[in-house]
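hi! just following up on the protien thing from before. the input was this:
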Amino acid sequence: MRIFQKQVKQLSDEELMTMLSKGNQRAFDEIYHRYSDVLFGYFMKMLARDKEKCEDMVHDLFAKIIRKPDYFDVNRSFRTWVFSVACNMCKNEYKRMSVRKHVSNDFEPTKSIHSDSDTLKKVHESGFSDSFYEALNAMDEKHKSVFALRHFEGFSMKEIAETLQINEGTVKSRLFYATKTLANELKEFNPIYNQ
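and the predicted 3d structure came back as:
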């Protein structure tokens, strides 16, 4: 029985991966459609917004999926599995670059400034955004990964633990440390400290 595109869109990620392991091109197209932009955004946050490198990482990840679709265990969540692969790719890239603690500040912060805002507010928000990404980039990979998965990708503690293959207690500890570190680095922007 042929599955038409409309029906493919209604299938779960895990069902699509089962079809992909049997060579179904439409299943791959749908998985790519669902995850390529999300993974590109994740790589951009983790790899100092090097667009070309991030595009290559997305391509490499999907090439792995095509070459070995049966590597995925259909009893697992595809979402946590694919982010686990992405995290491992970032770790390998950090090792290749040998710059764990010296990642440059190449983020292009998202501007959420209204055109009618006053100049002082614009300067303050821009300064905060620049400082935030600088502090995030200075963090080691294990703390940055947990923070990015939780606050940029919206993963639950359990999903982060599955993705990074660590226990939930470690996730909470790393997240607490990352948040505390960022708060300390950005305290100049906290009105309580500036009174």
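The chain is about 65% helix and 0% strand.
The chain has two domains: 1-100, 105-195.
cheers
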